[in-house]
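S.,

As promised, the adenine run. Input:
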Amino acid sequence: MRIDIITVLPELLQSPFEASILKRAIEKGLVEVHTHNLRDYSTNNYKQIDDYQFGGGAGMVMMIEPIDKCISELKSERDYDEIIYMTPDGKTFNQYAANELSLKENIIILCGHYKGVDQRVRDHFITREISIGDFVLSGGELAAALVCDAVIRLIPGVLGNETSALTDSFQDNLLAPPIYTRPAEYKGWTVPEILTSGNTGKIEEWREDQAYKRTQERRPDLLE
Ligand code: ADE
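Predicted complex:
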């Protein structure tokens, strides 16, 4: 998989890819992540990429021309399955979308800034608009990093133990059950006996039951 991220703040998209699972996924060649500084595609000497809104109003708008130049250059090099725009008024991201995106070959992610992009960018280039929740970030970069993390860890071969993504919360619309590790007793607080019983069938049953109970308590909407 190849991910191209278009941003005015490429420095915000460095460290998430320089540690742990994402770093290893890149090293293994399972994913390539490239950032593109939108200012490099500015069409004037001031490296301008934003301008005042037509009709007036506070806040700058990202101009269509640099974005068109950047996307066109990328599209001249390869085909893209999706051109994603990170925006608080997009569709709320979830595990289903992460699964879908993990199956794509090449995607572009455009990070919004200021008031956002000229609507014509959204109308003519963007194939999917993603929000990471009902709150407003100062830019789309951290949201893009979060989406990349959720997607990349689902690419086959990225996680050491293939089954561990399958037992994540949300993977089958259930939250994950409680988990424990040694010691079996700490300050008098004990681990549920069933987990140390060695009875794998019963343990599996207990986990399913706990996952269901937890979901019912915390996220009944997932069961609807
Ligand atoms: N940009 C600013 N806020 C955002 C959000 N909640 N989701 C995605 N992109 C954003």
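The longest strand covers residues 82-92. The mean pLDDT is 96.

- D.
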